Amino acid sequence: MSTGSPELNALRGVGGLGLDAVRGIGALALVAARTLLGLPRLERRELTRALVQFGFDSLPLAMATAALAGVIVVLQSGLYIQRFGARAFLGWASGYGVLWEFGPLLLGLIMSARIGARNAAELATMQVGGQIEGLRGIGLDPFAILVAPRVVAMELSMLAMSTFTFMVAILFEAVAALLTLDLPLRTFFGTFAHMLSPLDIAGGVVKTGIFGLAISLVSTAVGLSARGGAQAVGRAAASAVVQSCAAIFVLDFVLTLVLAGWMA
């Protein structure tokens, strides 16, 4: 039960949040540093397995999300495009929205639940079961064998999936514009090609890559910090999703400000 004045209790609450934030940043920095040190001794078989698990197996979900996102963007933006008589600009508007915002953000949120939760749960299971401590006991580095391959695989998977998801989303946007607004494909892709530059594509890929790095580091830090029994595994998976999503929204705000100003 709290004691003292409301102001003192509020100050304690703020101080506690500050300490938790510092601990979290410290844990992420430690995971990032240990992963970098483990890269030269990275376990290639674990990397291959992680690429299949995190990348290839996630492709159907990423493609389905991209297709739905493309159709929704056209249906939503089409209402305003028609109201202002600017149908010819739909290719530019919907392409810009997918490349800069909806594509990276939706892919990051979906993958935080798909690969972030799985990574945290697996590492938490090994941590609780003593397997990670066992590797240290026989002189092996868990970061080189388990962590570094997973971080690299998640980053490569996110970058590769961003390319596929952008292509699928734009293709479905064009088809949706043709079927719902009777906008010819030539007009859609004409404004898309003339008004968007390679920098717009690069901005979306950079965002997705940074989101992927955030998911991998957050889920790894959460998984390795798990303590207790089987319940700790469930808590780690749920916490990884929540913290990854929060990190993605904060990074999206910062990156949008920085990249939009730099590429303007």
TrEMBL record:
Q: Where are the transmembrane segments?
A: 59-82, 88-110, 159-181, 201-224, 236-263
Output the Gene Ontology terms for molecular function: phospholipid transporter activity
Which keywords does UniProt give here?
Membrane, Transmembrane, Transmembrane helix
Pfam families, per database record: MlaE (PF02405)
Q: Where is it found, in Gene Ontology cellular component terms?
A: ATP-binding cassette (ABC) transporter complex
Signal peptide stretch: none
Name of the protein in its database record = ABC transporter permease
Lineage runs:
Bacteria, Pseudomonadati, Myxococcota, Myxococcia, Myxococcales
